[in-house]
Design brief:
Chain lengths: ~260, ~90
């Protein structure tokens, strides 16, 4: 193993070196390259230790360490000395963040089923809305209730979310992330029928997607970007035919709405 | 499926597709799987037929809907429903 090079910063603590680094930034000077290297050298163990916890992602360790270095350098540049926090604590969060970011970028090419994406979005929105209202994360029961799902269905969903979206890094994430995933997912009982739930969700998402198109069309009908004459010319119809088509559609929509209200 | 103007239009397709999908869920829930699959298949077929006529649908132009985006969205619905049918069949295969 190569012996560490001695520098003039050897006797300084992490925090003292960061103070020198920040001083250079504050004066608008380029920081001493040796100082930056020394900060990285001192914290290589921290970066390697954190990176090794993400090996289950399948990414090479060297790549994880490289991503971790970026987090370390960001930590050195942004650490607030006025706060009574150890540099290593602060740096750990940023190193983990960069590594997670790297893994997610690398795995973005995995096709996540539409229903999982949609339900992930709904879970996230429900969690945020609950947190805004109550000032704390929801319990499983509360989250299931706000999503109009049974607890069993939510359990299946969280399991699918974990395996498909987070590519096996969530287990590590739960241990140390300041923004933890949905509550108590790991404590939940097994779901009874994941396949049926998966299929049902796909159909529901198909309905949702069709409804979104429907809304797009209805909204578009009331937005006059092109004249009816222009549209007629484009479609080989007279302006009068275009107008009749639109009137007919609007009339059908009105009848449909009236029927729906009567049901 | 004949909608406004005496031809297949997008809103009619969507209205009927949603009704069929809701029906399929009810059939699955009451263990009438064959009827459920039939409803799903009819939606896939209807989308296929509509995609052939899409360039002639005045609604798409009237509503300023991007035809490429629409094709992709409807294709995704077909993919999801095909997946449901195929998973259901493989789950029931001996």
């Amino acid at each position: 193993m190569r012996e560490a090079k001695r520098t003039s910063y050897d006797g300084l603590s992490n925090e003292e070196m960061i103070g020198l680094l920040r001083g250079a930034y504050d004066r608008g000077e380029a920081p001493d390259a040796v100082l930056r290297e020394e900060i990285v050298r001192r914290n290589i163990g921290l970066v390697k230790s954190i990176a090794s916890r993400f090996l289950s992602s399948g990414e090479p360790l060297d790549d994880l360490i490289q991503a971790g270095y970026i987090g370390l350098l960001n930590a050195a540049a942004n650490f607030d000395l006025a706060r009574n926090t150890r540099f290593s604590t602060y740096a750990s969060h940023l190193i983990q963040g960069e590594i997670r970011h790297h893994i997610r970028d690398r795995h973005a090419t995995i096709r996540i089923p539409q229903w999982v994406q949609t339900m992930n979005r709904r879970v996230k929105e429900a969690e945020e809305a609950f947190f805004q209202a109550e000032g704390r994360p929801p319990t499983l029961t509360e989250l299931a209730s706000s999503l109009r799902l049974s607890e069993e269905q939510l359990t299946s969903l969280l399991r699918g979310r974990e395996t498909m979206t987070y590519v096996s890094i969530d287990a590590e994430r739960r241990g140390s992330d300041p923004s933890p995933p949905p509550p108590q997912a790991e404590q939940l009982a097994a779901a009874s029928d994941g396949l049926a739930f998966d299929l049902r969700m796909r159909i529901l998402v198909a309905i949702e997607q069709l409804t979104e198109i429907q809304q797009l069309v209805v909204t578009g009908l009331f937005y006059e970007g092109k004249s009816q004459a222009e549209i007629g010319a484009q479609l080989g119809m007279s302006q009068r035919q275009v107008s009749r088509t639109k009137d007919k559609v609007l009339e059908e929509m009105r009848e449909n709405l009236a029927r729906a209200a009567g049901n | 499926m004949t909608g406004a103007g005496g031809m297949d239009d997008l809103l009619t397709l969507i209205g009927e597709a949603i009704a069929n999908l809701q029906r399929s869920i009810r059939h699955f829930e009451t263990s009438e799987a064959a009827d459920a699959v039939s409803c799903l298949a009819s939606v896939i077929d209807a989308i296929d037929r509509y995609l052939l006529r899409l360039p002639d649908d005045p609604l798409v132009a009237l509503a300023h809907v991007d035809a490429g985006r629409l094709r992709r969205a409807l294709g995704q619905v077909q993919d999801d429903l095909s997946f449901v049918i195929s998973e259901h069949r493989s789950a029931r295969a001996p």
